[in-house]
Amino acid sequence: MNEFEFINNLKERYGLTHVGDDCAVLPKDDSTDLLITSDLMVEDIDFKLDWTITELLGHKALAVSLSDIAAMGGRPIWAMLSMGIPDLIWNSDLPARFIKGWSVLAAIFDVELVGGDISRSPDNFFVDTTVGGGVPKGTGVLRSGAKPGDGIYVTGPLGGAAGGLRLLESGVRTGAAANADEEALIMKQLRPLPQIRIGDDLRTRELAHAMIDISDGLSSDLAHICSSSQVGAVINANDLPFEAELINLTGSIDAMLELVLHGGEDFELLFTADDEKISKSGIGEIFRIGEITANVGIIELIRDDERLKLSAEGFRHF
Predict the structure, then answer these.
(1) How many CA atoms lie within 13 A of 195 on its CB side?
(2) Is 282 helix (H, G, I), strand (E, B) or coil?
(3) Is the separation of the CB atoms in 212 and 307 below 8 Å?
(4) Rounded to an integer, what distance in angstroms lies between the CA atom of residue 223 and that of residue 219?
C-alpha cells in the first residue's frame, strides 16, 4: 500500500475524525479553531545536501508546513522544530545556517518558534516542522466542500519545482546553472513560497468551497479533493498554467504536461469555487483549469478534443 492507503486504514480502524485535510482542525475557543500540521523531511528522500543551499533547506522545511496552513485559509502563529543530526553535520556550520534560513521565513509571516527537539541521527539528517495557526470558528476550508459545477482553479503556474528537481538530478546546481531559465527552475524547487495571503483572502471572502496545496502533484491533489467531496473533475490541458522556463527544459508539450500534471512541490493552491463569484471578486491572477462534475471518483483530461482518464500519478513515498 502507499502512504495514503495506510493513513486511510488508520482512520477507519481507529475512528480518527480529525485526519484527512492539510491540517487538523481542532476547537480552540468559542470564536477560533486551531490548525495544526506537521511535515517530515528526510535526507536522500526529500532532499540532498549536495544540491541545496543550507539556508534554503531551512526555508523549505518551514515553507511546506506553512503551505498546509495556507490550504485551510489559515494564518500561522507558532511552530516547533525537531531535528535528527549526524555527528559530522553537528560539528559543522550546517545547523546554524539551517536555522537562519528557517527563521528568515518565519519572520516574514510572524511565526514564533516555541519549541521542538534535537537528537543524534546515526546516518542521515532529518527535520520535522510542526506549525500551529488559526481561523475563525467553522471557517477553515476543507477538501470536502467541492460541488458539481464548481470551477477548478490554481493560484499560479505549475511544473517549475519538478523542472528544477529534474535539473538537480541531472547535475545542474544553483549558481553554476547554464542559463537563467535553469536557475529560475532550480529556485522553484529549493525556495517554494507558501501562498498564505491568497489562501486567507479566499477564506475571508468565502470564495473557496474546497482547497488543497499542490505538494504531491496536481493529479494526486485533485484526486484528494474529489475523494473527500465525492465528486469528479474535468481538466482542460490548454488551460493549465506552466512556468515559461519549462519549454526549453522539456523540449515537447507532452514532457512539459507530465511535469505540470504530476510533478508536485509547486505549493500553489488548488481550489474549487463558484465561477460567477470569482469573476466578480477581482481577486487577482488565478487560473481556471476545469470543472467539478458529479462523476464520482473520475478525473478526465481534455486535450485536442479527446477526453482521457487522468490517473493520480504524483509523488509517493512508498
Answers:
(1) 26
(2) coil
(3) no
(4) 6
Rounded CA separation 77/34 (Å): 10
Q: Are 204 and 210 in contact (CB under 8 A)?
A: no
- Beta strands of the chain (E only): which ranges? 24-27, 32-42, 75-85, 112-120, 126-136, 151-154, 208-213, 232-236, 269-273, 287-293, 299-303, 306-309
Distance, CA of 21 to CA of 37 (rounded, Å): 9
Write down how long the chain is: 318
| Cross-strand partners of 34 | 26, 134
Q: How much of the chain, in percent, has pLDDT values that exceed 90?
A: 85
Check residues 10 and 139 and name the one with the higher pLDDT: 139
Residue 21: predicted pLDDT: 87
Asked if residues 55 and 155 have their Cβ atoms less than 8 Å apart, the reply is no
Question: CB–CB of 8/58 below 8 Å?
Answer: no
Whether 214 shows a pLDDT value over 80: the answer reads: yes
Residue 281's pLDDT band, with cuts at 50, 70 and 90, is very high
Query: CB-based contacts of 97: which residues, under 8 Å, 6+ apart?
Result: 54, 55, 58
CA Rg, the chain, in Å? 19
75-85 and 112-120: which strand pairing?
parallel
Dig out the grid coordinates for 221 from the structure: 491533489
Q: Which backbone phi and psi does 67 adopt, to 5 degrees? A: -65, -35
- Distance between CA 57 and CA 97 in Å, rounded? 9
Chain centroid to Cα 243, Å, comes to: 16
The residues that bridge with 264 in the sheet, in sequence order, are none
Helices 160-169 and 180-190 cross at an angle (nearest 10°) of 100
Q: Using DSSP, state whether 161 is helix, strand or coil.
A: helix
Contact 43, 110 (CB under 8 A): no
pTM: 0.94
Cα-Cα-Cα-Cα dihedral sign, residues 177, 183, 189, 191: positive
Residue 25: all three cell numbers together? 482542525
